[in-house]
What does this fold into?
Amino acid sequence: MVNVQYIRQDFPILGTTVYGHPLVYLDNGATTQKPRQVVEAITNQYYTTNANVHRGVHHLSMVATDMLEQSRETVRQFIHAGSASEIVFTRGTTESINLVASSFCQQEMRGGDEVIISTMEHHSNIVPWQLQAQRKGIVVKVIPITDDGILLMDEYEKLFTPKTKLVSVTHVSNVLGTVNPVSNIIRIAHDHGVPVLIDGAQSVPHMPVDVQVLDADFYCFSGHKVYAPTGIGVLYGKREWLDRLPPYQAGGEMIGTVSFEHTTFNQLPYKFEAGTPNYVGATALAVALDYVNQIGMENIAAYESSLTQYALGQMSQIPGIRIFGPTSPSLTSQVDKDSIDKSQLSIVNCKLHRGSVISFLVGNIHHLDMGTLLDRLGIAVRTGHHCAEPLMHRLGIEGTLRASFGIYNTREEVDALVSGIKRVANMF
Ligand code: PMP
It folds into this structure.
């Protein structure tokens, strides 16, 4: 069970006011707030054990190095990777995808080779491939979606050709909330001998993830969306792939030996961690993962699912509202049984067929106007294209409002959102 009132006490910012109203923070898809435990871990490390990692023989440096490697182990356990050497610390999802795009394309792709992405990708899973298209002449192919925001799996299968070298798709859409059938996506790609990168930015904070059960070749996420600080994230890669790929950036720590004639590279994962890593961020990420683990990812998934269902029910009664993405529980039954990941079974059991993200528009009120007025009531929602402009084009809109929930959100806050929307709508 999730005791939300108890959890909220760990997040001082939730007790603040905005324009005289209690803050209702519903922008968790963009970033989450941080619990005391995470903030204190950062302060403690700087006050008591700060030193650069890896290169020192002195006590503090060894303690800091141990903490970094323990954090890597915490991440490994959290996403159920086989080995800590398969966990690369990055700045976040964006850097993880850029790393794969750059190293994979350099090594594995030639002009005319193809990468498959989907219509619902975040720009950070579109533009890195477009850069490679410009640089190397690779071709980007796109899986289409239904009007409800569900991937067309038959069309996906048809995209494969002998030139397909990689599939890169999001686990959960940051706009539609769609939970994609990633097991199925991966199985189909593997049947064609093609590896898969999964963007887990919107899944890791909200549901249990097992990269081995999924059989993902690469999987990435951002710390700041899972109650950790900004500037730290993760790329998981199967050892066979990470071993095979060339380094992404060059500098200290990623080398074996260096001479002006010849340089060798370090073992995994250090080959991909050039320069001083964000070791304090890594500690804080591990503390954040311990924090959500204590609540239980299954409990978090169940709680957020019921909150999202409640919100969908309440919001759908607002006159003139248009909600994007899968809204009907019956859509779950359209999902092929095979496509339901074991790691998602508990979520499916609790009827979550979508993540805790609700994008909407009301009448012909501009999303920016409504977002600005909701803000005046203390309600923080995101407005705009959500870094998914191609998806906006597909939906035939410029942007939406988006409410996205975290472990500390309550039904009362959903009620505040609903009455805020009604109040703002009445002003137009
Ligand atoms: N992918 C998805 C699905 C996202 O929601 C986001 C963040 N909005 C990103 C990638 C990029 O994450 P970051 O900015 O933390 O690198």
Q: What stands out?
A: The longest strand covers residues 164-170. The chain has 16 helices and 17 strands. The pocket of 4'-deoxy-4'-aminopyridoxal-5'-phosphate is lined by residues 92-94, 122, 124-125, 170, 174, 199, 201-202, 222, 387 (CB under 6 Å).
